[in-house]
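Q: Convert this sequence to structure tokens.
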Amino acid sequence: MGTSEASNARAVREFTRIFKNEHNVDGVDHLFDPEFRHHFRIPLPPGLDGFKAIGRAMNGAFPDVRVTETDLIAAGDRVVERSDVVGTHKGDMMGVPPTGKTVRWSEIHIYRLAAGKIAEHWVELAMLEIMQQIGAVPSRS
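A:
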């Protein structure tokens, strides 16, 4: 891993620590490029405001959420993070009232960095797993 790749990996780890595990959605501005773009498939405000809206929604639904890095791969201007997530469903999740259940899922994030700042983000997360565990979608038994 080159120097810029190591620096990019550190920036993503700092983002995960602050935004995801400390639940400090507003404490990450210094890590983002002013032209940041997210690629969520749901309608959200553009840029960091939309990204923060997702963070607030997840923190509201799972206020004790904890993200554990499983893999972190830095190559060129990209960092890929695969993580395992656990949280207690204590708030509304897409219209589903709190169940009090412990919910586990996996996520894969791809970050593009520019000059050490997060400039772009893509995510694949196991939304079906989440919705099945909170009873919004039947699970196969």
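The helical segments are 3-21, 47-61, 127-133.
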